[in-house]
Write a structure and sequence with these properties.
The chain is α/β, with parallel strands linked by helices. It has 10 helices and 11 strands. The strands form 4 sheets. It has a 5-stranded mixed sheet, sandwiched between helices. Helix 4 runs antiparallel to helix 5 and helix 7 crosses helix 9. It is elongated and about 85 Å long.
Length: about 300
């Protein structure tokens, strides 16, 4: 009696590079795997795990971890992907899963378009897997270098390349690499500077904004559907203004029309820990956008805070 397999279809799509390729779309991956399984009665597709918007370099993807939990508890014993790069693009870690982890749990691995099946000694041998894994790793490194170079060039041109515009600004609808004042938030920023010049402390300003029912920066961005950082001025949509949030605004030179970019970096495409760069390495562009705060008012506030 032939062995039967309970399989999971693992689908992955990155933010960049292959995101625009229709051949790698989640729908296409799903369809291709379904057609493959339909011709193999020994395989039953029991789960589907999807990491949409995750790089193949790291393996802490949520759906990937769910798939590994399924494997460890015996729910599945076969993993099917469109191609090897969907599993991962980092050579060493991908090889570890293929040569050690999957075999240890008796898992059959199939990469449909690469014609890899670890049950077949001719397509699942170490040499074939190693070569394809190294190619995927090199591809990811090449994409990373090209992306970094392109972003650096844009920064030096004075184009805004950040994901979340600072509170008080939004992306120009006609040019996504240019900032324009957000009328409502800009007035709040101007009011914060005026109150500080008039002698109010950051805490007093925050208390007054809360009393007036002015949404905190994060709450405002969420309510408007604007891009916002996971960790911003506030911890949640309901969080109120704080002295810290006010101080961050008062110290931000962006409001004078200056664009400061390239403050942070990562070691390389495999190590994603953020490293803060020294100020003399930041890319500074004067008059990059319409100022919300006059330069003399900004400088006055810095002097006032320096005396506190």
């Amino acid at each position: 009696m032939s062995k039967t397999y309970k399989a999971t279809a693992y689908l992955r799509l990155s933010y960049t590079g292959d995101h625009s390729a229709e051949s790698d779309s989640v729908a296409n991956q799903r369809r291709l795997i379904a057609d493959f399984v339909a011709q193999r009665p020994e395989i039953q597709l029991v789960t589907e795990r999807v990491d949409d918007g995750y790089s193949g370099i790291l393996f802490d993807r949520p759906a990937f971890q769910e798939m590994m939990a399924d494997i460890k508890n015996g729910a599945v014993n076969c993993v099917i992907v469109k191609d090897l790069s969907r599993l991962g693009r980092e050579h060493i870690e991908t090889s570890r899963y293929l040569r050690q982890i999957f075999p240890a749990f008796g898992v059959r691995f199939i990469a449909v378009t690469d014609h890899i099946d670890t049950e077949d000694e001719h397509t699942g041998d170490d040499l074939v897997l190693s070569v394809k894994s190294i190619i995927n790793d090199a591809y990811c490194r090449d994409i990373s270098i090209k992306t970094r170079t392109a972003l650096e060039a844009k920064r030096r041109k004075g184009d805004y390349v950040g994901a979340c515009p600072v509170y008080g600004y939004r992306r120009d609808e006609k040019n996504k690499n240019h900032l324009v004042p957000d009328e409502y938030a800009a007035r709040v920023v101007q009011d914060i500077f005026r109150r500080r010049i008039d002698g109010a402390s950051a805490k007093r300003i925050a208390d007054e904004l809360n009393r007036l029912g002015i949404p905190s920066p994060l709450a405002y961005k969420i309510s408007r559907g604007l891009p916002h950082p996971k960790k911003g001025y506030a911890d949640s949509q309901k969080a109120k203004w704080s002295a810290h949030a006010v101080l961050r605004i008062l110290q931000d030179e962006t409001y004078t029309g200056v664009l400061l970019q390239g403050k942070q970096s990562t070691h390389n495409h495999k190590i994603k820990d953020v490293v803060r760069k020294p100020a003399d390495e930041w890319i500074r562009t004067e008059n990059a956008h319409v100022p919300i705060i006059r330069r003399q008012d900004y400088e006055l506030v810095q002097k006032i805070m320096g005396l506190d």
